[in-house]
Amino acid sequence: MKAHIVVLPGDGIGPEVASSGVAVLRQVAQRFGHAFAFDEHAIGGDAIDRFGDPLPPATREALLACDAVLLGAVGGPKWSDPSASVRPEQGLLAMRKLLGVFANVRPLKLHPRTAALSPLKPERTKDVDLVFVRELTGGIYFGAKTRDADGATDECRYSVAEVERVVRHAFDLARSRKRKLTSVDKANVLETSRLWRSVATRVAADYPDVELEHQLVDSMAMHLLTRPADYDVIVTENMFGDILTDEASVLAGSLGLSPSASVGGPGAGIYEPIHGSAPDIAGQSLANPLGTILSVAMLLRHSLGLQAEAEAVEAAVGQVLTHGNLTRDLGGTATTHAVTRAVIDALQTETEAA
Ligand SMILES: NC(=O)c1ccc[n+]([C@@H]2O[C@H](COP(=O)([O-])OP(=O)(O)OC[C@H]3O[C@@H](n4cnc5c(N)ncnc54)[C@H](O)[C@@H]3O)[C@@H](O)[C@H]2O)c1
Ligand SMILES: CC(C)[C@H](C(=O)O)[C@@H](O)C(=O)O
Ligand SMILES: [Mg+2]
């Protein structure tokens, strides 16, 4: 098949991991006979430096005309002055809004070798297989902001429609898995959470085969570490999802292993690791590329409909996690480039054997 993929390297380790993702996609194209065209564009701090805009018009135009987007990461100390009028993260938020990708799917699958690196006891991480569905285009991230000499405000607003579409997305996903959905909110305090809970409860009537439970976000943060294997699909609002997914990545052994797919819009989906630009390790080939490579598998499956190719990439990552030298975050000594090469070699061996 032919596909047009926009690549947004961004800042910090973003270009390092994005190039790993592209290398794997090139290998997939070659082994399976596809024609993928890559179109690189600016976003974030890099785009501010070059164009004075974290999401320049040429990037916007390309996003609206492609089949899928692969993002590295944006941000960094160079652009983090609190008085700056424009910030890299604004480019990322504007892109999510532009493409209308309201459902951010963040799976957490554990590999025994790397889960053993988590601070949790092995019996706690055993059998963990969960997926977060994080609302991505609403809530406090997108509410009105004010700032004056006395203080500042960030408005948190959700419409019924915004809650309903993401909750339905999560119910549909739960239906294809273990039929258990946990909706996370702060309904004991927040009006938006009371709305969230009432919408989730109403929608549940259309999914009698899925068990719905409500959980407050503070105790959820605790349960994620004490009994993570009890959860299947977890749906929550934008900011809670941001925080809980970084927390959950600890169970897998490293933030660098977690992929994501942002979907639900009329056009392209966005695929990116959940981590940031990691300024502390940027430019040293220390970044773990596996979260990005697993995001590539999600891109193949969800935006291009290439199930066998997605499984081949996941199997190749599994091989490397089992036998390979890993990056420093996972206790290894391999460079970003070496781990990427190992995945590509595993992909080649696997597809030759098939
Ligand atoms: N999607 C995105 O573009 C995105 C996501 C999160 C944060 N950010 C931005 O990134 C910048 C830095 O944020 P932060 O330091 O709080 O979070 P971070 O995710 O960049 O890094 C947190 C820690 O995890 C480590 N880490 C992250 N990814 C890794 C990888 N692939 N391999 C090995 N180690 C990895 C880092 O070295 C650091 O110690 C900020 O400007 C923030 O806004 C961007
Ligand atoms: C960089 C930031 C705006 C972003 C978010 O909070 O959504 C990041 O933390 C993420 O998880 O993708
Ligand atoms: Mg985050």
From TrEMBL:
Pfam families: Iso_dh. Catalyzes the oxidation of 3-carboxy-2-hydroxy-4-methylpentanoate (3-isopropylmalate) to 3-carboxy-4-methyl-2-oxopentanoate. The product decarboxylates to 4-methyl-2 oxopentanoate. The gene is leuB. It is found in: Cytoplasm. Homodimer. Signal peptide: none annotated. This is 3-isopropylmalate dehydrogenase. Its EC number is 1.1.1.85. SMART domains: Iso_dh. The record marks Y141, K186 as: Important for catalysis. Mg(2+) binds at D218, D242, D246. Pathway: Amino-acid biosynthesis; L-leucine biosynthesis; L-leucine from 3-methyl-2-oxobutanoate: step 3/4. Its cofactor is Mn(2+); Mg(2+). Substrate binds at R96, R106, R134, D218. Belongs to the isocitrate and isopropylmalate dehydrogenases family. LeuB type 1 subfamily. InterPro entries: IsoCit/isopropylmalate_DH_CS (IPR019818), IsoPropMal-DH-like_dom (IPR024084), Isopropylmalate_DH (IPR004429). NAD(+) binds at residues 76-89, 276-288. GO terms for molecular function: 3-isopropylmalate dehydrogenase activity. Residues 4-343 form the Isopropylmalate dehydrogenase-like domain.
